[in-house]
Amino acid sequence: MRRYGKNPDEDDVRVRPNRKGNRPRTNIRPKHEDASEGMVLTVDRGRLTCLVEDRVIVAMKARELGRKAAVVGDRVSLVGDLSGAKDTLARIVRIQERSSVLRRTADDDDPFERVVVANADQLAIVTALADPEPRPRLIDRCLVAAYDGGLTPLLVLTKSDLAPPDELLEMYGALGVPYVVTTRDEFVDGLAAERVREHLTGRTTAFVGHSGVGKTTLVNALVPEERRRSTGQVNAVTGRGRHTTTSALALPLADDGGGWVIDTPGVRSFGLNHVDPSRVIHAFPDLEPGTVDCPRACSHDEPDCALDAWVADGHADPARLVSLRRLLSTRERREGD
């Protein structure tokens, strides 16, 4: 059925008036020069809690940012109601350039990477020496993600009263990763938190580890005013802990030196599909010059790799090369191997 007949003219066509005026569309976006700077503290179902000066603001991402997502630790620019009053909502209009990123994929075959934390200086890898048993391959994967993302790793070993730390410390000694060893009693009396705090002052530190190792308990002790509802217990059947943190959360350290801790959900796997193995060598400054004579696209774990001659000539500790190759091969092995 024809709306205007067989041969309509201009007088037959009805034009619906535009209540918003006749302003043409444009690709020019406002600069928001009056936007205030803030930091993302946590993200929950599209709502982002941000710190602007000394006020906690709830915001949502502006449509003009497209698919670009803000994550915990991001420095952002906000406009709108920045009072922090109940039921108010601001808009995030810019996400500042990131100095570092902690990323992971669901597994090594997953092409979709997820940015967990932005702008952290340090990655604290928390693992228990027993109950649950340590998983060195998961530690290796976290180290690779830290080196790839520009974070300095810190190894936190808990429950040393149940098992000695010597084997793990020997395994990672060649990497020069700083570490803290704690017992269960030290968690109770607060000594564990104080020893870890020495490595956190003035830094933004993301905490990662599988469930049941004491990660959230440690964060609670470091920031006592931000207690979580529960810390969970280890499942006696599976040996795995129950998840007690469902989303990443940034919390300020309560001391004169400043600093932030970011608690992340417990992980059961740490996919590295996003990691380019060629970037891992940058975390080994004593070995990197030796790659100049490597064949093109060298994996640094093949017969023609120039690093073997570099180490044989005494330029670096052989244990460092062993550690590098163990980390590079961790993508081909499952975390529990």
Polypeptide structure, described:
- This protein is of the alpha/beta class and 337 residues long.
- It is built from eight helices and 13 strands.
- The protein has helices spanning 136-149, 166-173, 184-189, 191-197, 215-222, 277-280, 307-312, 318-328; strands at 36-44, 47-52, 55-61, 75-80, 90-95, 101-104, 114-118, 122-128, 152-158, 179-181, 204-208, 249-252, 260-263.
- The strands form three sheets. The chain has a six-stranded mixed sheet.
- The longest helix is centred in the middle third of the chain and has 14 residues, at 136-149.
- The protein is globular and about 90 Å long.
- Mean pLDDT is 83; it is low at 226-244.
Helix content: 10-25%
Order of helices and strands: EEEEEEEEHEHEHHEHEEHHH
What is the residue-averaged pLDDT? 83
Count the beta strands.
13
Report the sheet-strand fraction.
Answer: 15-25%
Q: What composes the largest sheet?
A: 6 strands, mixed
Distance between the termini: 70 Å
Low-confidence stretches: 226-244
Number of helices: 8
The strand line-up of the biggest sheet is 10-9-8-11-13-12
Task: Tell me the radius of gyration.
Answer: 26 Å
Name the structural class.
Answer: alpha/beta
Shape call: globular
The quaternary state of the protein chains shown equals: single chain
Features:
8 helices; alpha/beta; 337 residues
Question: Helices and strands in order, then pairings?
Answer:
Layout: E1 36-44, E2 47-52, E3 55-61, E4 75-80, E5 90-95, E6 101-104, E7 114-118, E8 122-128, H1 136-149, E9 152-158, H2 166-173, E10 179-181, H3 184-189, H4 191-197, E11 204-208, H5 215-222, E12 249-252, E13 260-263, H6 277-280, H7 307-312, H8 318-328
Helix pairs in contact: 4-5
